[in-house]
Write a structure and sequence with these properties.
single chain; 83% helix; 5 helices; mainly alpha
Length: 92
């Protein structure tokens, strides 16, 4: 694959990391109110037992931050010569 493909992938990873940080910080209350709470209510109404870790607001904040860290680590790795070599081998 070409170098431009790698650049696009790296920009996508950087955007995903930024959106994950936004979800965990500024948009946390909106996600709790409009996505997680209705989802929990639907599951409870259907009789599904939702595990405590899934209901935890702390986990809803921690998971996107963890994913942002992984996205940034992958973004950094694909910018190194080893990452470029790995990507070019995997693309063949």
């Amino acid at each position: 694959m070409s170098h431009s493909t790698l650049v696009i992938i790296r920009w996508g990873l950087l955007a995903a990391a930024a959106l994950s940080v936004l979800q965990a910080t500024l948009l946390q209350a909106a996600f709790q109110r409009w996505i997680f709470q209705p989802w929990l209510m639907l599951n409870e109404r259907a009789g599904a037992r939702v595990p405590l870790i899934v209901r935890s607001a702390r986990m809803h904040r921690t998971w996107p931050l963890f994913m942002a860290f992984l996205f940034l680590a992958l973004w950094w790795y694909l910018g190194t010569p080893d990452g470029v070599a790995f990507f070019s081998r995997a693309a063949r």
